[in-house]
Amino acid sequence: MSATHPPSPAATAPARADAVWRGAAAPRRAGAVFLAFWAALAAAYGLWLLAFWPGILGEDSVAILLEVEGDSAFRSGKTVFWYYAIRLLYGGTRLVEVPVLALMLLCALILARMLAWSWSAGLRKTSLFGLVFVALAPHMVAFTGMLYPDAIFAVASCGLVFELWLAVRRRGMDAASLAMVAVVLPFAAFCRPNGLVFLLPVVAVLPFVHGRARRVLAAILLAWCALMAAAHRAHPSQAQEAVYPMAVFETVNFLRPHAMHDLWTQFAHMNDPWVLAEPRVSPATLELLRRHRPIASMNAYSDPAYWDMLVFHPEGPQLGGLPVDDRRTLVREFFRYNLWHNLPVFAGSRTTVFLTAALAEGGFPAVTYATQVLPRIHSGSAYRRFDLEEVERGFIALQKASYHLRWLLWTPWAGFALLAWALVRGVRRRDAALLVVALPMAIQCGAIFLLSTAGEYRYLLPFFVLPLALLPAWVWRREAPAAAASAPQPVR
């Protein structure tokens, strides 16, 4: 670069940001930026919680609270990490607002880290966009105030891949990155059953990190894995299966009436005999299901985007109660016969469930549902303790306005687009830093598409948050590959 052509801000931003977070350039200013973002988010989240005290509670909240309050016989179906996290925060206080507040502050901390890093890197428009349209989006604030694992899982998983992206770029990790990984790893990997995939990028990053930082990162990984193994022995969890729910949901979907098929049955000459003779599902499947409930009952409680009616409705077919051997038979028959004879129906069903979630067409726990939850648990929490009606109405008005534009303001499509870009660019250029982010997120996306049995927006919340982790890389996409490598390395 000649003296008359100084490097552009975009070209120097990565090295400048790395230096800032290594403590090599204006450490006090970098810390002040982080604290400013955290304070702003904590204030907004705290005001929301004061208005909607003690937070948003739903049926999943009831389940985990009853498991914590119970005698170890009841299982909520949540992971053992989520059980112990809620037990730690709720078990001794019997106040629902304690875990809600702790999780909101933790979400604010992780979001502030990503926003402050982008700000310190000179990506101030990116940082402000993330603050306004992601971290302070009305539905995002509401999800962080909900006693469900989805918000902290979404934020922690994006926070984790962000730190790993930095580690590969910088070929090392400083104290701030290691501390963040220690905090976010259990929430990303163990908060939900599908989070285990996030252990793989942590292992993959180890060769890129050297010296003391590698040893510390490995120790963090092994320590959390050992703790989870001990926790499973102490309190075996019964987390919901992934394959059986999809198999039974789609099998019932295959059995739904098809008007054209009925017409062909009445006018058999319209098709060759063997076309109508071939059953849509295997005889073994039909025999198994009919032993449990009439097929008509399953059709009556079937929904295109939710399996809940088939499992939880008190008058429904209660397919979650099938014996273990029947479950295995149904799954085996699904992959042996039923899937291959209903591929168009299966593809259409998977698309319906996914789009229902992506377009936020499913249901959400009401902000007032805590009135139905608190009487069912042994909690000392009071509903709307601070009686901030004006503030509550203001937040609800914002939420309603946001909901009407959810196809734009809630969309995970920005995250999907950035993920596709990162995956393609990472493969073409063999960019390990991008692949550390893209591969586990692509696996998550594929698993949700193939296995999800409910069109719940919250399952796709990680992809709403993902732009905070990938936008810096996208902004620097024209940067010379050597720019990052030339940046000074962190403390080893």
Q: What labels describe this entry?
A:
66% helix, globular, 492 residues, 0% strand, mainly alpha, disordered N terminus, disordered C terminus
How would you characterize the overall build of this protein?
This protein is mainly α and about 500 residues long. About 65% of the residues lie in helices and about 0% in strands. It has 27 helices and no strands. It has helices spanning about 10-20, 25-50, 60-70, 80-90, 95-120, 125-135, 140-145, 150-170, 175-190, 200-205, 210-235, 245-255, 260-265, 275, 285-290, 295-300, 310, 325-340, 345-360, 370-375, 390-405, 405-410, 415-430, 430-450, 460-465, 465-475, 480-485. Helix 3 crosses helix 4 (about 80-90) and helix 8 (about 150-170) packs antiparallel against helix 24 (about 430-450).
Overall pLDDT confidence: 89
Content of β-strand: under 5%
Radius of gyration based on Cα positions = 25 Å
What is the molecular shape? globular
Low-confidence parts, pLDDT < 50 over ≥5 residues?
1-11, 20-25, 480-492
Number of helices: 27
Number of strands: 0
| Head-to-tail CA distance between termini | 30 Å
SSE-based structural type: mainly alpha
The portion of residues assigned to helices is 55-70%
User: Could you spell the SSE succession in H and E letters?
Assistant: HHHHHHHHHHHHHHHHHHHHHHHHHHH
Largest sheet: none
